[in-house]
Amino acid sequence: GAVVSQHPSRVICKSGTSVKIECRSLDFQATTMFWYRQFPKQSLMLMATSNEGSKATYEQGVEKDKFLINHASLTLSTLTVTSAHPEDSSFYICSARDDRSYGYTFGSGTRLTVV
Amino acid sequence: AQSVTQLDSHVSVSEGTPVLLRCNYSSSYSPSLFWYVQHPNKGLQLLLKYTSAATLVKGINGFEAEFKKSETSFHLTKPSAHMSDAAEYFCVVSDRGRNAGNMLTFGGGTRLMVKP
To answer: Which of A21, A37, A106, B38 could form a disulfide with B88 if both were Cys (CB 3.0 to 4.6 A apart)?
Structure first.
């Protein structure tokens, strides 16, 4: 079945530094990928829609200069949290939509802790 | 516009007893409906999906869900709970209107606890 690899699974960084999270579709092409944030014991909140070869579409209230998204190929999207602060600590999950089946596959998530 | 309401934030059952996780949705077009399971600090795993074929959908691990248009519901059931079923469950809707494969809208989640 479809597999999405999300890396790293856990990362701890210092305040003020930047962290990059990768989301890769392993056996299908995904023109569109999605980035979610999940707070403890809460549902997933869509942050942005990542489109290959064009700018990402950010949801209201999400700072595009802080959460940089790059979707340079049909199998890879990256989310960079710039100048991270402790309030950015969260669980980030990506999802890739198969270009042929329109099925969604989720990555395994990244636990970001900013100290 | 589409929305999803999971009626129970927590459900507790004893091992071996039936599971019912309730979900109601609203959608402007013919919806696709999904149930996902999430174990702690893990991503989401698809349990089952409804895409306009049979209204009773069977998924993995013995779960099934029935699409009831008149009630706008898509409740998840399992005849006999197992300890390994303890997790967070999300009901998700996606409109299948003119734009196939639209974004997903998540319910608030239901935490299933299974007592020995």
So the answer is: B38
